[in-house]
Input
Amino acid sequence: MSEVRAFIAIPLPGDVKAGLMDARHALKTTYGRSARWVGPENLHLTLKFLGNTPEEQLASLEEGMSRSVAGTGSFTLCLDRLGAFPSVARPRVFWAGLGGELDRLESLYSALEKELVKRGVAPDRRRFAAHITIGRVREGASVAALPGIELQRLGFTAKEVVLFRSTLKPGGPLYTPLTVSTIGGIV
Output
């Protein structure tokens, strides 16, 4: 049985990626090689990390994804702030937070989670935290608190959800779209 490492995400437009690259550059100036930085081609808003998934299950997951987005219309989000997990005092992951119609995003996430659970995907144990990862602190690196870096408040309309294949490579992951569902589309 063949497996695919997969996740479901909302893609980002070019101007939003450019704004995130500006913030990443500022962070990289401070932290340099202490972190692995996400390239512009890999920036996205993750809705659900699926991990290793049997290829035979993909069609069912695609149907669930399509059903979950059919119940809502497109909505507007914007870059809001920079932050870090687990905290800004001890960063392990650098991220950009979002503002805008977060209630609509939460509704979409809940509908997706419900559809995927019906198809055998384990529910998330943690509460959904809308963010875009821009860097991960390397194992063993010690970094200070997150510096005060401004993030451009760029807005975008969430119009589609994509099921991606994630192929791990020595130079970083390669994300390949497998299927796209239009938000508010017909099932």
